[in-house]
Write a structure and sequence with these properties.
This protein is an alpha+beta fold. It has one domain: Endonuclease/exonuclease/phosphatase (Deoxyribonuclease I, Chain A, 4-Layer Sandwich), CATH 3.60.10. The chain is built from 4 helices and 14 strands. The strands form 3 sheets. It has a 6-stranded mixed beta sheet. It has a 6-stranded mixed beta sheet with strand order 5-6-7-8-12-9, with no helix packed on it. A hairpin with a 2-residue loop joins strand 6 and strand 7. Helix 3 runs parallel beside helix 4. The termini are close together. The protein binds one DNA strand through loops.
Length: 256
DNA sequence: ATGCCTCAGCTCCTGAGA
């Protein structure tokens, strides 16, 4: 089965691209971030016609996440249980025997800002809940827009961007702490091209210059790790006429 | 450059994103 994540930066604008992408890439599960719409605007009918069940958790203007699946999703949970949050950032569901958690992690804006502190507390809240969720669900995938790079290999200009947002030691500590729960960065389980990124700024011709960051990740649990067959970033949609600034990331799991 | 582009909204400017 294939499971994918894509930050679409407005589902209203990107819906035709998402539908076209699903036709070309009929994955079992796709989690979406930055819907930027309320649930009453969510295009259920379009996804039904495309052969997908949809669970959404939207919000006006900002954030918003969804989980699409070929087979029905069960035990749907919105946001982090035990962590009070005004924003729609996380959606979890079981598809087949895999627990899928799609997240839009806080941006953080700037180290030292209130938004950065919120990002740190959100990451801690996620980790504390995830520890229990992993114990309950050994076959688990946590994927989405993490807004954090692991290390210099994920950054187009590691010197110039040192200690800036997405690249600080404090953010990376929290990312490693998630890994320490028993998760693995599916992308790095395989040899990958150098300078592989999942996001490129809209400005300054960043995409054609490949000035990007790898901030969209797929983490798999210990139990799933031996089943991972591939993990790729699909840069094709970034070449569309009105692209999202993020590219989809796809993991393929073997059937037991 | 507190710049560059894109999106939503109390829409012709501003806030936020990353």
């Amino acid at each position: 089965m294939r499971i994918a994540t894509w930050n679409v930066n407005s589902l209203t604008v990107r819906l035709p691209q998402v539908l076209a992408w699903l036709t070309a890439n009929p994955v079992e599960v796709l989690v979406l971030q930055e819907l930027k719409m309320t649930d009453d605007k969510f295009p259920f009918d379009a996804f039904t016609q495309a052969g997908y069940h949809a669970q959404c958790f939207g919000q006006k203007t900002y954030n918003g996440v969804a989980l699409l699946s070929r087979s029905p999703a069960t035990d749907v949970v919105r946001n982090i249980p035990g962590f009070s949050d005004d924003m729609a950032r996380l959606i979890s569901a079981t598809v087949g025997d895999v627990r899928v958690i799609g997240g839009y992690f806080p941006n953080g804006q700037e180290p030292g800002s209130d938004k950065f502190e919120y990002k740190m507390s959100w990451l801690k809240g996620l980790r504390e809940w995830l520890r229990e969720e992993l114990a309950r669900n050994p076959k688990l995938v946590l994927l989405g827009d993490y807004n954090i790079t692991f290390d210099d290999a994920d950054v187009w200009d590691p010197v110039g961007l040192k200690d800036t947002i997405h690249c600080t030691e404090e953010e990376r500590y929290h990312l490693r702490a998630l890994i320490a729960l028993g998760l693995h960065d599916a992308y790095r389980l395989f040899p990958q091209a150098e300078k592989s990124y999942s996001w490129w700024d809209y400005r300054n011709f960043a995409f054609p210059r490949n000035r990007g960051l790898r901030i969209d990740h797929i983490l798999v649990s210990n139990t799933l790790k031996p089943l991972v067959k591939s993990c790729v970033i699909d840069k094709a949609p970034r070449k569309n006429e009105r692209p999202s600034d993020h590219a989809p990331v796809i993991v393929e799991l073997a059937n037991d």
